[in-house]
Amino acid sequence: MPELPEVEAVRRELAPVLRGARIANVVLYRDGLRRKFPLDFRESLIGQTVRALDRRGKYLLAHLSSTDVLVMHLGMSGSFRVERRSVGARSPEKHDHVDICLSSGPVVVFNDPRRFGVMDVVRGSEIDERVALGPEPLSRAFDGNALAAHCSGSRAPLKSILMDQAVVAGVGNIYASEALHLARLSPRRAGSTIATSSGRPRESAHRLAAALKHVLHAAIRHQTTGSGYTDSRFRVYDRDGSACPRRGCGGTIVRIVQSSRSTFYCPRCQR
DNA sequence: CTTTGGGCCTGGACGC
DNA sequence: TGCGTCCAGGCCCAAA
Q: Listing from the earlier edge strand, what are the strands of the sheet with A69-73?
């Protein structure tokens, strides 16, 4: 569930705690998550100072004084919480997997019931291959031209293209559906139909890129204003059977399956 | 090359 | 109430 806006909210919450902090200890409650932790995981972290906490797509990147990078991904169900230092060993709650104990006192706890998350340490020079992603959707590097370049000649449906992390970083199942609805484009449409094989991209590619930016900006705003994430703010996601929110449309949201994932859209106004 | 599908996981929703 | 079954979905990798 956590996509770019949710991960960005986590980054903003964690950054003030981690920035400049020294890692005094790391406690592992199991040997890995989706993959095993590297053997030198603790050694790579203990004693390091966190220079900065960045986000790339759905990844959180803690840059360490050693120039190594702690790579973190929330997967489906991961979360962090900050606890006050406890005297002696902390008794973990269910699905707590990693404690990052800071010498300033707090403990950053990673909890992940489904264990789809990632915790890894990579050399700074290897970060681009370990976290190989397309442009940030909210950056200048991502626009209608960039999107059209990937759509050109592709028979893949637009939904899949938006969720391809090599095309644009951080878009998951929810915001792909949301952006397509705002752009009035069917998720089933082939990429090639919104991009000419050569020359200027069609207007639809620009509309879709702009819609994605809008949807993500709005979601980040919602996150940070703490208005909670009830589903009510979604236009189409998980709303099959209800009326299309577009003024004057009158259509009904449907759910389809693409690449064994749910897609929600309005067949009436999304073409 | 592109595209698809299975596996990893657990909690919650559902049917009986 | 307590089973069993299915679904949710990001990412990686194998297979088509």
A: A50-56, A59-64, A69-73, A118-122
Helix (H, G, I), strand (E, B) or coil at A91: coil
Please report, rounded to whole angstroms, the spatial distance between the CA atom of protein residue A91 and the C1' atom of nucleotide B2: 49
> Is the CB of A95 less than 7 A from some atom of nucleic acid strand B?
yes
Residue A231 CB contacts under 8 Å (≥ 6 apart), including other chains: A237, A238, A239
For residue A116, say whether its CB is under 7 Å from any atom of strand C: yes
Q: Tokens 């442009």 belong to which residue?
A: A135
The catalytic position among A22, A130, A261, A268 is A261
User: Cβ of A178: how many Cβ atoms within 10 Å?
Assistant: 27
What is this structure's pTM? 0.94
Catalytic annotation on A58? yes
Written as tens digits, the pLDDT of chain A (271 aa) is 689 999 999 999 999 999 999 999 999 999 899 888 999 999 999 999 999 999 999 999 999 999 999 999 999 899 999 998 767 778 888 899 999 999 999 999 999 998 989 999 999 998 988 888 999 999 999 999 999 989 988 889 999 999 999 999 999 999 999 999 999 999 999 998 998 755 566 899 999 999 999 999 999 988 765 444 445 678 999 888 889 999 999 999 998 888 888 899 999 999 9
Is A245 marked active-site?
no
Cβ contacts of A219 within 8 Å, gap of 6 or more? A4, A5, A6, A175, A233
Nucleotides of B under 7 A from a protein CB: 2-6, 8-11
